[in-house]
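Researcher: Here's the sequence for the chain we discussed earlier.
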Amino acid sequence: MLNMASILISLIYIISLSPAIAGISNVESDIDDLQTYMVYVQKPRHGNFSKEIDLESWYHSFLPATFSSNSIDDDRQSRMVHCYRHVISGFAARLTAEEVKAMETKNGFISARVENTLQLHTTHTPNFLGLHQNSGFWKDSNLGKGVIIGVLDSGITPTHPSFSDKDMPPPPAKWRGKCEFAGGAGCNNKIIGARNFYNLSLPPIDDGGHGTHTSSTAAGTFVNGANRLGEANGTAVGMAPLAHLAMYKTCDDYADNCPESSVSAALDAAIEDGVDVLSLSIGLGPHQHKEFHANAIAIATFKAVKKGIFVSISAGNWGPRTFSVVNDAPWMLTVGASTTDRGIVTSVQLGNQKTYDGESLLQGTDTPFEQLPLVYPVTKNASATTNCPPETLKSIDVKGKVVLCQLSVDPQDVLDAGGAAMILMNNELIGDSIVAGSTVLPHVRVSYTVGESIKAYINSTSSPTAALVVKGTVIGRKTAPEVAAFSSRGPSTVSPGILKPDIIGPGVNIIAAWLTAVEPITNTEYTFDIISGTSMSCPHLSGIAALLKSAHPDWSPAAIKSAIMTTADTVNLEGKPILDRNHLPADLFAVGAGHVNPSKANDPGLIYDIQPDDYIPYLCGLNYTDQQVQGIVGGDVQCSKVSSIAEAELNYPSFSIRLGSSPQTYNRTVTNVGPANSSYTSQIVAPEGVEITVQPNKISFTEKNQKVAYSVTFTRTKNTGASSAQANLSWIFGQYTVKSPIAISFI
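Model: Thanks. This is the structure I predict for it:
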């Protein structure tokens, strides 16, 4: 979630690890040194451990036999945080480093590490995405009826009208989840399950609004008259209005603290409960990239995919920096954020009569429509100048004036100094990507380019003035969708041979359900809020995946993912390439396959399917040890007996390759889910200096679900001096265009 003051506020879970204990006697523990450890052990190899109590007994046997407390059994129980049944073979426990060291000698022990801490990462978006009531894909998918979406987040507000169960069917017979609201009163046929893994003693109520927002984005029901301070008014609805919701609270929304052990426990429960889709607007923070075998989310979501559960997950809010994408395992759908064609516009009218558009959620009567003195606090310190620190504001008279500042300013400082209004300009890194918000005084947020123009005007006259002109909600921006500046970019640090992010979807200025709150300036109560982040784009894709699951119950998670990626839009509403924050064409490490097009995804023609075991040669090809691969996939794996493959050889819908002087050939297999009798012809868009050939260049099918293989060879024909390039491979038959983006890095 991103607020006005910073684009990097969206929620992404940060994993914090703590030590685990050995089943060794005479190990004293200092309570002040306890940390939560993720402990990995072998599965029990004898006896019947099908009952939960037996498996827990096996886990408890690894804990120290002697504690500082008087009751060994009570201390063991209190030290055990979570016992896992599906996502890993192991448990989370509070231990000291010495206890973990002693546990290493225990038979069956594999490893232990301190847990990581993760961070948390719509009235118009259905129409923008081509979803219309009683027609098209919404009708074909029955609005996601019967599908269960499990949301891992900060909890939920069960009394919100977005979670009414009017016209909702009862949960499917397979559902085994629990409702942990007092007396079960918060659950109904919409919210069919709710549990708290962040604090086991409290109900899963949303503390800050984030989980309520993401849940309603994925599967909220129709609510008329939704708006934020009168703007973005319309009917709020999630992507899959008839899908069921299960909330797994894993994070304190205020503290942005989401323990790895809690996230793993929630995923473990979701698999057991019977969800169909998992939505995780969470992940590691910036510069915390971890190999898949050391990443609890990667490990747990692989187990979910093995059970046929689709995983939609946020790419992170660390853009526009390269190598900033998180949640980059190939079995996840990694979702970046884009704009829609809606804006909530306030304009800046300068004293020279020039007008520049910006955005603001606060469009009330306090907005200064008349021309007021305009000031840009200037000191000798360039950084202080742009950020309007309190000491600068005190040294310059800003009372009753419009104050130009850069984004990182605290609006309260401007208010305290007597400012009448603010113009908040982006810095150069963020460029022209605007995230609307509300603050403690009237304001408008403008792009870096506009901000520089306003500064030039201030410097051109001795008495600059400005007024803010409210224009309200505007729909129809032809440059949409654009990639949000904050949306994390690839390449993947862990596996650069897999193009990440996979897809982009609406994540800027998204209106959805919120806990009841009060706007400080107008003292107005609101129950819908507009926020931004890949936390918002992720549940859009979760809901779309639920629609596809409802329409195609036999499709695997990889098939759904392929359908989303190969049918994605690569141009904006003007028919031009999707743009980045500087109004230049966005590269593949920003957009992935492109912008989601739900209706096209429902009928992709061909899919690139991947079975869980197909990831084993890929993981062995990452040079992971047998034990590391086993920890991810479960079961016995010996990479020496596996034909390892290069990353780009995985049957993925996109390509990411490092090309040198030698030709490279990669293989793909497509499955026909379109017309039984069909014949596709390849079409290549290659960059200068690269020759791309496809064999065969025509593929034919005579029945549905038939598979056909092809190969692609990349040859560098000359050195153009570029460090990278991009290409595209399409298979075309009638109305079908099955697209695969190709990212090329030259070595």
